[in-house]
Write a structure and sequence with these properties.
alpha/beta, Rossmann fold, 2 domains, seven-stranded mixed sheet, four-stranded mixed sheet, 9 helices, globular
Length: about 250
């Protein structure tokens, strides 16, 4: 009950600042609280991401992750990146966000909070190329693919390619978080080598979308990759690496 009350308080507390920003034709609003200093888009869900109680049950999944590197796939404006770097044992974070408008917030929030993290305007996918994304006008963290000239064209890249080019040792990665709005299996298909070579005890945090069939396929892939489920909260699932898989699954 107290969380609901706090969420209402948080939204009402920052409503005047959001309305003032809109009135003054300012594209963003700045919010400061115990989480840090954040820039958000007025009257969108980026305001919710600055709420200290937002997804609070998931916070220990981040802050109690083993020491190592954090890969934040679908980072939004950077809440989980901040938690990982400032309150956990994470030594370095790489944050990926496809929506250009939200990506600009991610970069500013990384800089304003002096995070040891890097942000990239990339959609993580199975194959390199590009994707047309249609961001939701209010739920700016949620995007869907679209065809033709509509939407925003963004670069798409397998995480395996990124890890190879940046010379990141997969065994140094302790946590990968994936929130890719229904494209979890595509994202996982582009990180086969990476998750195959993560060390036992490392973790995979995934938000599952797109119904039971897609979720079952994603579950199967994750488990065949050497992970077991250790916790879940609603649509969010936490897996731990236990074994080394014998082959790539999507060859």
């Amino acid at each position: 009950m107290w969380r609901l009350v706090y969420r209402i308080y948080h939204r009402l507390r920052w409503l005047p600042a959001q309305l003032q920003a809109i009135w003054n034709n300012q594209p963003t609003v700045e919010i400061r609280n115990e989480l840090g200093r954040f820039t958000a888009l007025p009257l969108t869900n980026t305001i919710r991401e600055t709420d200290p109680t937002h997804n609070i049950k998931l916070h220990p999944w981040i802050t109690e992750a083993p020491p190592g590197i954090f890969m934040d796939v679908g980072a939004g404006s950077g809440l989980f990146t901040r938690l990982a770097v400032t309150e956990g044992a994470i030594t370095k974070a790489y944050a990926f966000e496809g929506n250009p408008a939200v990506y600009s917030l991610l970069l500013k929030n990384i800089a304003d909070n002096n995070l040891d993290a890097e942000g990239f305007n990339i959609a993580i996918s199975r194959e390199a190329g590009s994707m047309n994304l249609a961001p939701h006008s209010v739920n700016t963290g949620h995007t869907s693919s679209c065809s033709g000239k509509s939407g925003v064209n963004v670069a798409a890249r397998p995480l395996d390619d990124f890890v190879s080019v940046r010379q990141v040792n997969p065994s140094d990665i302790s946590l990968i978080r994936i929130e890719s709005d229904g494209y979890e299996l595509s994202a996982l298909g582009g990180m086969q080598h990476t998750i195959k070579n993560m060390r036992p005890g490392s973790r995979l945090m995934v938000r599952l979308w797109n119904g039971k069939q897609a979720s079952d396929m994603t579950f199967s892939f994750i488990k065949w990759s050497g992970f077991r489920e250790i916790d879940h909260q609603g649509e969010y699932y936490l897996f731990e690496k236990t074994i080394e898989p014998e082959k790539d699954l999507l060859e």
